[in-house]
Amino acid sequence: MAGGGGELQLLGSWYSPYAIRAKIALGLKGLSYEYIEQDLSSKSELLLKSNPVHKKVPVLIHGGRPVCESLVVLEYVDEAWAGDGPPLLPADANDRATARFWTNYFDSTFFPSWRALYRSTTAEQRAEAFRNAVPQVETLERAFGECSKGKAFFGGDAVGLVDVVIGSFVLWFRVVDDVAGTNLLDQAKSPGLAAWAERFLAVDAVREAMPDAELLLEHYKEFLAKFASPAGST
């Protein structure tokens, strides 16, 4: 097992799906590290120094050198500890390109669509946002069929990059569904994704990285209350 606490540090926020990505990757590789919780409303000097451009989590600090942005962190972990745990990216160049395509799709296309649902505070807003998100879910359902090739995960037999990127949001999907009265990964409409989500959450490294669902629900309700108030920030 590589990486002692002093050598490897992770700056994150417990509710951040982007920080959860890093936790999952480190767990899959069997790495030990020091986790340093960050208050994003009062950012630490360590965070500001480590990620002066975006000032966001996660930041992985390896041997005193920071690595920023969740997708970059995932690929860094995969490369730096190639001999530990399953590879996050496949060996085949075309399969790697396909995985990168879908991770980019999720962050640049799917997430903005779903974020509208996350930020909705009225029934009308939620209904419209959900309608707009459904085609993106249908696209991911097709992507799962393409990437998994009939196996358990986007990465095939084992969790890969696309699984970690999308899967880090699964609890958030459920929390927002709970409040909005929606069902994003509907078993009838997206059977592949619905079954995949259950398998993904059952993976040890994933289960250990995920926050408590009830705490996440309370955090989300508090966010909505602030967001809906006249002084709420966007």
Automatic annotation (TrEMBL):
| Keyword Disulfide bond annotated | no
Q: Which family does it belong to?
A: Belongs to the GST superfamily. Tau family.
Enzyme Commission code: 2.5.1.18
PROSITE patterns noted in UniProt:
GST_CTER, GST_NTER
Q: Any idea what job this protein has? A: Is involved in the conjugation of reduced glutathione to a wide number of exogenous and endogenous hydrophobic electrophiles.
What's the superkingdom here? Answer: Eukaryota
| One Pfam family recorded for the sequence | GST_C_2
Source species, please? Zizania palustris (Northern wild rice)
Residue intervals of the GST N-terminal domain? 6-85
Q: Does the keyword Methyltransferase apply?
A: no
The taxonomic lineage of its organism, from the top, reads: Eukaryota, Viridiplantae, Streptophyta, Embryophyta, Tracheophyta
Q: What are the GO cellular component annotations? A: cytosol
Q: What is this protein called?
A: Glutathione S-transferase
